[in-house]
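Amino acid ABC transporter substrate-binding protein
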Amino acid sequence: MTHGSTAVCRFFASLFIGLGILFILPVSPAQSRPLIIEGLSEAPLKWQQDGEIRGVDIDIMKAVLAEMQISDYEFRLVPSGNRLLYNAKTGASDIVLSLSLSPERQEFLDYPNEAHLLLDWRFAIRKTDSDRISFNDFSDLAGLHIGAAAGFSYTPAFWNSGLNIETVAKNNLLIPMLLRGRFDIVPLNYMTSLYEAQQDGLADQLVFLYPPIRQAAYYNVWSKASRYHGKESFQRQYDAIIDRFQKDGTIAAIIESYLGTEGPRKIHYSQ
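Tokens:
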């Protein structure tokens, strides 16, 4: 609708209202469509189970949307990172869940000030080795047989440490090989690996060492190309809500609902 036609509609609307006639202006698609929120499948952050998309990211975002009284929204899982970013670049999605900060992505994504999660990579060992293996510095791991997944970045310091590192083709091989005694220690994404170990009944056999070897803040970000009608209002409110959820334990409680009470609060998962 052009500016001129909008002005004409408003003129007749005023006239009809003055005559006691109800006149309803058409609602633009941007005003009527749901908020589109996308992410990659990775339990326990977000995944589909029994036809329902659930997870830590989903529950946090639902709590934010409830605070803002937004009820018209749709969560979508996409098959690849390339598709996820393409949809955001083109405005096919409005919000992307859980991305780390990246200068390249900032060209087409609006990052909030507040991160909702602090995710990390940690070394895992067999529980029976708790008395003999600890980690504060890479020198503590001298003489150990370390397993790692080929193609994973971890940190440059890890790959350049001069330690006895053997690579395997897939990340999901590391825990089984660790428990069989093939490796003494392996680096893993803490949250996803702990959840998977719990689901497989293996968590009691593992210990995740602290401090992490890598830690990064993760954000729920807006597509700059999004034309969602409530975008500016959402962005104004979001940081204050996430900050409050961090301080009042809302986010910690959501994480604990998936990982149990032995995890997040004691190991500084949310900021």
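The CA atoms of residues 68 and 234 lie 8 Å apart.
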